[in-house]
Amino acid sequence: MKPGKKGLLLFGVSFVSVVVVIVGLEIGTRILRPGVKFVHYMKPSRLFNHGYTPNFDGKYTGPEGYEFRQKMNAFGLNQYKRVVVPKPENIYRVLIVGDSFIAGLGNITVPNIIGDWVKLRVAGDNRIVEIVNAGQSSYSPILHIARFKHQLQKLEPDAIIFFPDLTDVYDDWHRYRKYAVFDKNGMVVRVNPSTRLLKYWENMEEAGYSSWYSFFAKYIYRRFFSKSLKRLAGKSGEERIFQHAQVEKDAVTKKAMTQIMYSVSNISNYLELLESKQIHVSVAIYPHLPQITGKFNRLYEQEIRKLSFRKKIPFKSFFKEIATEINLGRKLYFKGDIHFSNIGLGVLGRYVKKWIAKDPVAALGIKFK
Hints:
It is built from 14 helices and eleven strands. It has helices at 3-32, 100-103, 110-118, 141-150, 168-176, 196-207, 212-224, 237-241, 254-276, 289-293, 299-310, 319-327, 342-358, 360-364; strands at 42-45, 49-52, 57-61, 67-71, 91-98, 128-135, 159-162, 180-182, 188-191, 280-285, 315-317. Helix 5 (168-176) packs across helix 9. The chain is globular, with a radius of gyration of 23 Å.
């Protein structure tokens, strides 16, 4: 065989081998562990990783067997009401942006609670204030930037209330950074959809496995020799996702601080993007239950507060209000789940409403009549 043909054959065999290995690993991860699944009302996006399926309408069973109806509008927002585009001149449009805590459970959402109250009021310039639920499950600052650029700015918002979440740090650094495409200035351009293989590797990497070989060697040993089917990861999901929050402030590792500040820098880019579009923006944050009980710290919140003050952006923490309710014995979070229950969402929505009523200029950028 001639050298040229031999090299071409070798290349072909190598290419096919690589493809077979990748496909095999992808199939293997699905068999060994399904990993993170997009539920039926989600769909992947080549621009902002994933989003809700437009016009989806179905029942969903959440934590503790709580059943609710999940219905998206034509824009893929978790609300029944249509959002008119182009925006009518008599509308002052406010987007409530966050992750699943803000997206809510069916019709019980913080945006709906605010919207039901705001629709009875009129802005000082006679415009009607419209509240839009722009919450999206499993989102973090990187995805918020991409989604605004490719979707939400089409809604022509006048104001945005942005709710960061404690899970942002893990999501930005481990889940979405590898899929993001950045411009020469470090700004997110888009975020590609996730693959099952890389999602699984993210868990293995955090669990301390240096390679696929070490993972499968340990799996084979446990499966066929130790007869143990216990999880292979060295850390639970909660330990991985909230690792940056589980230690005291004076003991935070350099690695954790790097990840926290990375997410804060993405928030900074997001706020600058909104301000460049002349959108009024305010930042608000709620606590996770372990922060109230003292298991988690509030370092991420503190860094976001500092950032907001530096940029002269209104900031509100609902830690004190929610902690007071918890200390009075109210159960605002689902058992065995990080999210607010339907009762908790109602309580948070009530406090957000009070904050807006007290200072609408800071929260929304307008005065009410």
